[in-house]
Specification:
The chain has about 400 residues and is an alpha+beta fold. The chain has three domains: about 100 residues, no CATH class; about 110 residues, no CATH class; about 130 residues, no CATH class. A seven-stranded antiparallel sheet has the order 3-10-9-6-5-11-4, sandwiched between helices. The chain has a four-stranded antiparallel sheet with strand order 14-12-13-17. β7 and β8 form a beta hairpin. The N and C termini lie far apart (about 90 Å).
Length: about 400
């Protein structure tokens, strides 16, 4: 007769299999701790969606900038690290700073958020965000009202400028080109807006607009004798929306790939060459042959305005030594071409940002200015692919194709 097996309870069976049935004690977090954890999870979702850590910079989405500030705070606060370090499967806490443009120091999270046009309820904690819309819209509407056109009392000062520009256009010394989506606006620029010539007589002090980005108040003189003190971004927006809106080129402005700028040619940006004023021994001893080579679609002066606070610029002021205007080209592809071409002469340096985190600056090269000029000429005629740079001989070498 077969042996009767003793019936066992589910609990006994699980215990035999080594399953611990002791209830797990749930860790209770304070509301502040829950917000810190939730804020870190938002950063993790951002990294999953975009494939990189959040970065600072006025060209970044406002929430990315806030996530970058939040991540900087978490990295340096022991309380935050203890809460989220077990969650960090992406190496966010140990990967070092990814800062492109260090944020300004603020007395509180609330002050930072207010500066960026964001309100933070619940004690102004940076992990709890909410867009401010109605206030921003009202402020923008008010600013636009202030920018209405009024008679220019000293227009006789500007009349000769408009007459000269018109003559330059007729003779071909100046051209009218499409105003690009990331086109800059600087003092002394001429534009065509709604069929009228506009001259930028002055650019006011920088301030932070209601959308959290840098803004400037302009004095714009029109050829019909009126003027406006509208905001820079407002003028840019109107030029983009105006199908007949144009930039009037400067006499010295020259296209990179074409000797003549046609009316339909689109401005693409600027290659800029910078020299660092850093007193680091390696930089100071080789200052004349160490250059940063970059491409931008905006103003070079605006881009480098905070250089001494930015590890990208070696935490020091920089000098603009050369610029080359671009037309009808993809500047992002051009930037990659330049980087690859000068890769053998890339400067290998690490520098600490203002938070003490090590950063490896990009786009700095051991290369003299005359070589850069020669490379731009090769790009201009379209045969740069036939050459390589030999840093030991400090010259361009024509490649032999087998």
């Amino acid at each position: 007769m077969a042996e009767t097996k003793e019936k066992k309870s589910n609990k006994a069976l699980l215990e035999e299999l080594g399953v611990d049935l002791t209830p797990t004690k749930k860790v209770a977090h304070s509301p502040k701790e829950e917000r810190i954890i939730a804020g870190f999870e938002e950063i993790q979702r951002f990294v999953e969606e975009h494939g990189h850590q959040p970065q600072h910079g006025e060209d970044r989405d406002i929430f990315e900038r806030l996530f970058a500030v939040r991540l900087d705070r978490i990295r340096v606060q022991a309380e935050c690290l203890a809460l989220v370090e077990t969650m960090d499967h992406q190496g966010l806490l140990t990967g070092g700073s990814q800062v492109n443009e260090p944020s300004t120091e603020y007395k509180s999270d609330k002050a930072l958020l207010a500066e960026l046009g964001i309100e933070a309820p619940q004690e102004g904690d940076i992990t709890h965000l909410k867009h401010v819309r109605s206030q921003s819209e009202k402020a923008r509407a008010k600013a636009e009202e202030i920018g209405q056109r009024v008679p220019c009392k000293d227009f006789e000062r500007f009349r000769p400028l408009f007459e000269t520009v018109q003559e330059d256009i007729k003779t071909g010394l100046r051209k009218t080109i499409v105003f690009s989506k990331d086109g800059s606006v600087e003092k002394g620029n001429f534009f065509i807006l709604s069929g009228q010539k506009a001259y930028i007589a002055d650019v006011g002090e920088e301030f932070i607009g209601t959308d959290g980005r840098k803004e400037y108040r302009l004095r714009v003189i029109f050829d019909n004798g009126v003027e406006s003190n509208q905001l820079m971004r407002s003028l840019q927006k109107r030029l983009w929306e105006d199908e007949t809106g144009r930039r009037i080129t400067d006499i010295s402005m020259g296209p990179l790939f074409d000797d003549v700028v046609g009316e339909q040619d689109a401005e693409s940006g600027t290659i800029y060459i910078l020299r660092s004023m850093s007193e680091l021994p390696m930089i100071a001893e080789n200052r004349k042959v160490i250059h940063k080579i970059g491409v931008t679609g905006g103003s070079v002066k605006t881009r480098i305005s905070n250089a001494k606070l930015d590890p990208t610029y070696l935490m020091a002021d920089v000098e603009i030594v050369a610029t080359y205007e671009l037309f009808n080209i993809n500047r992002f592809k051009l930037e990659n071409i330049i980087r690859r071409f000068f890769e053998p002469a890339k400067l290998d340096i690490k520098i600490n940002d203002r938070f003490g985190n090590p950063v490896t600056p990009r786009e700095w090269f051991f290369v003299p200015l005359f070589i850069i000029d020669a490379v731009v000429d090769k790009i201009k005629v379209g045969d740069i692919s036939e050459y390589r740079y030999d840093p030991k001989e400090v010259k361009l070498v024509k490649m032999v194709h087998k």
